[in-house]
Amino acid sequence: YGDETSISFFISILLLAPLLETLIFQKWVLFLLDKTFLKKHKFKLIFYSSISGILFGLSHHYNSVHIIKSSLSGFVLMFFFMKINTQYNQRNAFISIVVIHALWNMTVWIIRNVWQSQVESDDRRSHTEIQREGLVAQNQNTFNFPSHPPKSIFQGFVLKRNQCIYRLLVL
Asked: 109 or 165: whose pLDDT is higher?
């Protein structure tokens, strides 16, 4: 992905990618498919969304799982693009999808760069260090929070036997 903490990367995932991808995978796909026999098909919404989703997924070819997830996202984005376009107009549909896409990208960025870095830093700390800070009780059955707040809300869940639950909560 490159340096995900740089300003240029953040701007590209919040502005450039949503604008360009909405233009290509929603607006242009709709324009091109409307020139085919599918324009009058009763399942037009599903066909267009599927084709757009597949193209969107293939453009995000980091790995096969990411292609599948991106294809589903592309399907949903095109579905809503067409619904908004039908109910309002193409300008509103375009702006709505760009905003939704930018918010999605920002959410993924926060999870990958803020929460994930916190999980990794907690994982690197030894159980002894955590006990010294008073975050974990000696008998490992209860939590012993100090009078000062922990550095993160996740530090209290570092017990080894609760590590699976901890990972589910933060990931």
From this structure: 109
